[in-house]
Write a structure and sequence with these properties.
Layout lengths: L2 E5 L3 H12 L3 E6 L5 H9 L3 E4 L4 H4 L4 E4 L8 H8 L4 E2 L1 H6 L5 E6 L4 H14 L4 E5 L5 H7 L4 E5 L2 H5 L8 E4 L14 H9 L10 E5 L3 H9 L5 E6 L7 E5 L2 E6 L2 E6 L8 H16 L4 H10 L8 E6 L2 E5 L6 H10 L4 E5 L12 H7 E7 L4 H7 L5 E5 L2 H11 L5 E4 L12 H13 L2
Parallel strand pairs: 1-2, 1-4, 2-3, 4-5, 6-8, 6-9, 7-8, 9-10, 10-11, 11-12, 16-20, 17-18, 17-20, 18-19
Antiparallel strand pairs: 12-13, 13-14, 15-16
Helix pairs in contact: 1-7, 6-11, 6-12, 11-12, 16-17
Length: about 450
């Protein structure tokens, strides 16, 4: 009996453990932190052996295969030992993909991947395809493979999940964009992070498809230097493309082998240029999978976005409060500030991942009237924007930040939570940060 060790008992870890157990592996789950009661009960229910608050090495180093949670970096000593002992260390995505014959749409990118994943799933489901959504969203891929396997999956994939693949190959890969993110995990080398994102194309063949932002210089350069086997379908806001998607005037055109779909941008439910790109990516996937054109158009017209991504919460005294907690990097915040049409009080801060704030200067100069820092250490933000904005305030809780914003913002202005940073200093995750923001706004 082969031994599967799972490091990390979160959604992906517990899903992998269940799948491994069902497929006849001897399974051991080890988590250095505490395991939540919910996941403990699941493990007990499936009679899976587990431990918490430690890693017992002699129970781990005799594994045939190890699935590590995407949150555990490669530089951890235990992971290095596994590599030295020649034990394969893979991601949940790799493990689960061995046990399904489903066609996979894999979506990655520094920004836009959640919106694109949900939008793609929305169109495919409405188009009559039996499809699940997993990866960074909802129930884990592994859990769905074991409990409710479907012929198609739309997977939102982080670079950490892609780092742990060996044979995994999506039939359709989507790369929304690449901007510096998570550099703390990639030795602060942007090229390592870029290579990690492109692992989505690693095992694709000529029969597969790669949909990508054709305006992104970093992506274009990488493709020129590293030929990709799958069929290339770019989307662009600036130039016509023969196969793929482009914007001309106020109209999107998507062409695949002379089969054309057009749609006016004014009909898109999600506003902003970045959402035009997300819609292009989702529509290209849908067209490849032969969804009816009327269905694609209707779905792009009625899809209303993702929680914590430029989400309008409330208008109070004519001030619009906007929750963009999902903006965990500078580029995401760039889109958020760009979307603000009037003066904005900006709530920013958290765990900095090696951010370079300079690209925000023009937008901050133009739109931001005050900055409210929300982090344990705000020195980098204060240094970065001290010359752009006169009013910079430090706060230590969401309630305090929102109350301060309420005092500063005036009629017809915005209060924007768009942190540009990870949330782990004061919150469990970006969802909790966003929920606290919405609660604090409702209490005003």
């Amino acid at each position: 009996m082969k031994k599967l060790v799972v490091l990390g008992a979160g959604e992906s870890g517990v899903g992998t453990a269940i799948l491994g157990k069902k497929k006849g592996f001897e399974v051991f789950v080890s988590d250095k932190g505490t395991i939540t009661d919910h996941y403990k009960n699941v493990l007990i229910n499936f009679e899976i052996e587990w431990e918490e608050q430690k890693h017992t090495e002699d129970k781990i180093l005799n594994a045939d295969v190890v699935m590590k949670s995407p949150g555990i970096p490669d530089k951890v000593e235990l992971v290095k030992k596994l590599y030295r002992n020649g034990i394969p260390v893979i991601s949940e995505i790799e493990f689960a993909s061995e046990f399904t014959s489903a066609k996979v749409v894999g979506i990655t990118g520094s920004n836009g991947k959640t919106t694109t994943t949900m939008l793609t799933h929305h169109v495919l489901k409405n188009g009559g395809i039996d499809v699940n959504m997993a990866g960074n969203i909802g129930d884990s891929f592994a859990k769905q493979v074991v409990e409710n396997d479907t012929p198609y999956y739309v997977l939102e994939l982080s670079s950490f999940q892609l780092d742990g693949i060996v044979k995994f190959a999506p039939h359709i890969a989507v790369l929304t964009n690449i901007t510096p993110d998570h550099l703390d995990r990639y030795e602060y080398k942007f090229e390592n992070y870029i290579a990690s994102k492109f692992r989505i194309t690693l095992n694709q063949t000529e029969r597969d498809y790669f949909i990508y932002d054709g305006d992104d210089e970093i992506i274009k350069k990488y493709i020129e230097e590293h030929p990709i086997r799958s069929r290339l379908l770019p989307f662009s806001l600036t130039r016509k493309v023969e196969n793929g998607a482009y914007l001309e005037g106020e109209k999107i055109t998507i062409t695949i082998d002379n089969n054309e779909l057009t749609m006016p941008t004014k009909d898109l439910a999600l506003k902003g240029n970045h959402n035009v790109k997300n819609a292009m990516a989702a529509a290209t996937v849908s067209q490849l999978l032969k969804i009816r054109k009327t269905t694609i158009r209707e779905c792009l017209e009625n899809f209303h976005g993702v929680e914590h991504r430029l989400e309008n919460v409330l208008k109070i005294n004519n001030v619009q409060y906007v929750n963009d907690s999902k903006a965990t990097n500078v580029n995401a915040t760039f889109y958020a500030l760009d979307a603000m049409k009037s003066a904005t009080v900006w709530i920013v801060g958290g765990v900095d991942k090696g951010n370079d704030y300079t690209e925000l200067y023009p937008l901050v100069n133009e739109k931001v009237k005050a900055i409210i820092c929300l982090g344990v250490d705000n020195s980098k933000i204060i240094n970065a924007f001290g010359n752009c904005v006169d009013n910079i305030v430090e706060t230590q809780s969401m309630k305090e930040a929102v109350n301060m914003a309420y005092k500063i913002a005036e009629r017809n202005e915005n209060v924007l939570l768009s942190p540009a940073c990870a949330s782990f200093d004061l919150f469990k995750n970006y969802e909790e940060r966003g929920r606290q923001f919405k609660e604090a706004v409702r209490e005003l």
